[in-house]
Design a protein that fits this description.
The protein is 19% helix and 29% strand. By secondary structure, it is α+β, with helices and mostly antiparallel strands. The termini are far apart.
């Protein structure tokens, strides 16, 4: 199949029927849409059941509440397509908000938020190679040089949840792609590392989030020393609003800015 770009159509994205369009390295392609396998894993069943529950909840709304979601959706935007943000419909916004709440095991909401959520400001210092995790596939030893997120000290408010997603470790990761990540934690361990600690060579208060154990719990393998993708999202427990505070692509094994190791029990010890 061939296509010729025109003034009317010079960019394509997504699927229609049995074909899929994409743009790779500046060139546009149209190819046959692959037929996905359906292993019907426990995780997939959970996702499908979540969609069904949310769809059922929207159907049960009064027309007045549906109208409220529709009105509120005009102020909301989806992720950019071709660099242009697209507005959501009322049902899309309802689904998006409640999907966010389902991810953090919070109750669904039937009315949109009236006030914008105030999220804390997070300032990343380093993705540090200081975390370890016990290997979960029967191999002896630990996985070391795993990422630890190091932020300027912050406190997460009670009404805000944090979602962390990570990919496998692979040198092919050069650009962040959320679809290639998995959620590893919705309640990550946060270690407050005070400036007065003898092991804190940064000499400033920091908040550390070790990712070694959560990663091995999800991926069940001993990772190679290569590139990884990491994202951090903050979600309001009351209204389902979400912001992304970090999308990272790179390695961590050679960035021991704190010169420490954090073991699987979240105990801090000297790296040297």
């Amino acid at each position: 199949m061939k296509f010729k770009p025109s003034i009317a159509f010079d960019e394509f994205s997504g699927s229609a029927g049995n074909v899929t369009a994409a743009k790779i390295n500046g060139r546009s392609y149209i190819k046959r849409k692959p037929i996905p396998t359906n292993p019907n894993t426990v995780k997939q069943q959970e996702v499908r059941n979540r969609f069904k529950e949310i769809a059922k909840a929207y159907k049960a709304l009064t027309q007045e509440k549906k109208n409220a979601w529709e009105l509120h959706s005009k102020k909301s935007f989806s992720r950019a397509i071709f660099g242009v943000k697209a507005t959501l419909s009322g049902i899309n916004l309802f689904q998006q908000v409640n999907q966010n709440l389902a991810l953090i095991n919070a109750p669904l909401v039937d009315t949109p938020a009236t006030n914008a959520t105030e999220f804390p400001q997070l300032s990343l210092i380093s993705v540090d190679g200081s975390s370890t995790g016990v290997n979960t596939v029967g191999e002896n030893g630990t996985t070391s040089c795993m990422p630890t997120l190091v932020f300027n000290k912050f406190e997460l408010p009670e009404g805000i949840a944090m979602i962390i997603r990570m990919s496998d470790f692979n040198d092919k990761h050069t650009k962040f792609k959320r679809a290639e990540t998995k959620m590893i934690s919705v309640a990550p361990t946060m270690l407050q590392f005070e400036s007065g600690n003898a092991l804190n060579n940064l000499k400033k208060d920091v908040t550390m989030i070790p990712l070694g154990q959560p990663w091995t719990d999800v991926y069940h393998q001993r990772p190679p020393l290569s590139s990884v993708m990491i994202s951090v999202d903050l979600v309001s427990k009351s209204d389902g609003s979400m912001i992304t505070v970090l999308e990272y692509v790179g390695n961590s094994y050679d960035t021991h800015v704190l010169d420490i190791m954090i073991d699987d029990k979240n105990e801090i010890r000297s790296f040297s």
